[in-house]
Amino acid sequence: MAESPQRIIVVGASGGIGQALTRALLDRYPAAEIWATRYRSAAPFEQERLRWVQLDVRDPSAIETWAAEFDRVDWVLNCAGFLHGSAGGPEKTIRSIEADFLLENIKLNTLPTLLLARYLAAALKQSGAPLLATVSARVGSIEDNRLGGWYSYRISKAALNMALKTLSIEWKHSHPRGCVAALHPGTNDTALSKPFQANVPPGNLFEPAYTANMFVTLLSRLEPADSGRFWAWDGNQIPW
Question: Which letter does DSSP use for residue 88 in this model?
């Protein structure tokens, strides 16, 4: 992007990748003011330029109220996501599909980006180089799906990717200086992936700090012509 961001929002900043991304942004942009959201956990660390806020990303009214505080935002980066929890985990077969679990995936993996785009659109429009990017997953790629399984997670990430692609088309007209991006972080050593790390090939399990720094480098290079694309942490494009 042509301009260094002066105000950045990191949603889901208390998670493994979100926290690492927040730290990387603080290091890379020493003049930037950074707002970081968390759900229920305490703030994992403090810094003078960092402002923490508790936010339920599934709540439209909460996002609308909070977004109204901003007159300008340069970057909105959404790291919030859901893979497993008390409601269940990734399904291996269609026989395991449960409506509530599928909807929980949609609520946490798809809906928040749409709400953030809706309620922060005006503030982003005031930026000289607005950027909205969300951490997605390669398993959300329809073309790249060769293994099957993980129905709810795949569905919610595919829906997220469609939302970002559709938003990029709209914002080419309303936010012509901006960029919309979907991001794939690979498999990181976080609580999200912990139950599934045994199947990760050697060398393919990344530290969140590594992925975060790769993301910041990638994001800093994106231009309006790159809007509406799906990027891996290493800068390679992923098919939708």
Answer: B
Return the SS3 of 158: helix
Structure tokens belonging to residue 29: 């942009």
Positions in the chain whose pLDDT score sits under 70:
1-2, 188, 191-203
* CATH fold for domain 7-232: Rossmann fold (3.40.50)
* Domain spans of the chain, in order of start: 7-232
The C-alpha torsion from 95 through 98 and 103 to 106, rounded to 10°, is -30
DSSP classification of residue 42: P
* pLDDT one-digit tens code per residue, 68-115: 999 999 999 999 998 887 777 889 999 999 999 999 999 999 999 999
Q: Within the chain, how many helices (H) and strands (E) appear?
A: 6, 9
Q: What is the DSSP letter of 194?
A: G
Query: Over the Cα atoms of the chain, what is R_g?
Result: 17
The answer, as to whether pTM is greater than 0.85, is yes
